[in-house]
Amino acid sequence: MITLRKNQKEPIRKATEFFNTKKPVPSLIVLPTAWGKSILTAFTAKEIDGNLLVLQPSKELLEQNYKKYLTLCGDDLEVKAGIYSASFGRKDINKITYATIGSIKNIGKLFKELGFKKMLIDEAHLYPREADSMLGAFLKDSEISHVLGITATPIKLQQNTDLEGNRFSKLQMLTSRSKKGNFFKDILHVGQVQEMVEMGFWSKLEYKTTGFDSSKLVYNSSRSEYTEESVQLSFLANGIHEKITEELNANSDRRHILVFVPSVAEAIQLSKQYPDSAAIYGEMHKAEREKVIDDFRSGKTRVIFNVRVLSTGFDYTGIDCIIFGISTASIALYYQIVGRGTRIDSNKKDCLIIDLAGNVNRFGRVEDIVFEKDTLWRMYGTGGKLLSGLPIHEIGAVTRDNLSEKLSKAKQKKEVKTLEIMPFGKYKGERISDIPTDYKKWMLDKFDWTPANENLRQSVLLYLHSDFGF
């Protein structure tokens, strides 16, 4: 039997309590990278009544979670574990069953017959919220009543359109209202990153940044990420190829280094130029990619030049340096990449994060990320920078202090007698809360407001604030 750390006891208690509650709403537990999610799964399965279905988004993560369960907890907890995954080659169901949604999407009724009422979803942020998704169909057929999600990043990218018809994207907390609904209604517990750092369960991170000209970065059509072409142009314009080589030479004491570059051509070129290095990318043959990783783990290869691989699910603890040669507008990707260096290892004192592409300035230090609740759950970064609930391209424009003022004004507006139903016009008779955001913005800009319709103006403002999470 393993001994629980003090920061593990409370979320396990809350998870157990959730599954033993008669009619809970779908909820989340937020746990940072390296917290030990398989431990929560195992201890929860032991303490609750009935069966538990554990859902993973991929075969690789299923295998990782299952093996960790057996290694850390399986025998001691006396809870039999099964796997239901076609890609894994097994279809056995037990008290605790690890599964992938693609393998069980059409057999919800079987799990219902076997008495499954409880589901734990790992990496919950990766699943769609639509009722007609594979997960939605399975939940309907199985009639599972208790759904608890686990994630380090309880956020989802949402696309919107402004009054001019231009698309933009923003990060929404999974518990926030959206056009597609919010399947998860509440967060039961948040394990803040800083707790892991203070308790010594995260490797110390050191940051080094360089001057970066972001003028060539261009958002894609949905304004959710920079285009690959502009990231490549920025890479070239800022001389990042040469800077990578300089940093590798200057940090010769670092033994296991991941370098993120924008193209396969760059990765291959750098691997040919730099000794004890290799390139890795998605198009490589699986056996070749596994050899690169094995050589990296053994120390035969010191540096991996990486293209869209190893940002998630790669848990080698020895990584002591990460170099950003790419720019990203995705806080989730940034978090995942830095997370590769947070694992504790007896052979490293810290992990050096070298940012050559402006990411640390954009998002701040990962250790500063916190999730807090006022009227809604929100995500903040370094300096109280708001990271959720506003357009991606406006990150940095609102801080915790700015938001407090907005919330105070919104509270004052609530004290004004508000209207719920639109009294005239295109949406006459409909609830103002259901009127499209763009139309509410248009009303405020174009209507001839008089004292006689001040209540309507205040109502539109109130619901508009609600649309944007304020």
Q: Give the biggest sheet.
A: 8 strands, mixed
**Global geometry:** globular
**Average pLDDT metric:** 87
**What is the helical fraction, as a range of percent?**
25-40%
Question: Count the helices. How many?
Answer: 16
Strand order of the largest sheet: 4-3-5-2-6-7-1-10
Kindly estimate the percentage of residues that lie in beta strands according to DSSP: 15-25%
Radius of gyration, in angstroms, nearest whole number: 24 Å
- End-to-end CA span: 46 Å
Q: Count every beta strand, where a strand is a DSSP E run of 2 or more residues.
A: 18
Structural class: alpha/beta
In the predicted model, the low-confidence regions spanning at least 5 consecutive residues are none
Please give a structural write-up:
This protein is of the alpha/beta class and 470 residues long. The protein contains 16 helices and 18 strands. It has helices at 6-19, 37-47, 59-77, 101-104, 108-113, 134-142, 193-198, 228-237, 240-250, 264-273, 286-298, 331-339, 359-363, 400-415, 437-446, 454-467; strands at 27-30, 52-56, 81-85, 90-91, 96-100, 118-122, 146-151, 155-161, 167-173, 186-190, 205-209, 257-260, 277-281, 303-307, 321-324, 351-355, 370-373, 377-380. The protein has an 8-stranded mixed beta sheet. It has a 6-stranded parallel beta sheet with strand order 11-16-15-12-14-13, sandwiched between helices. It has a two-stranded antiparallel ribbon with strand order 8-9. The chain is globular. The two termini are 46 Å apart. The model has no long low-confidence stretch (mean pLDDT 87).
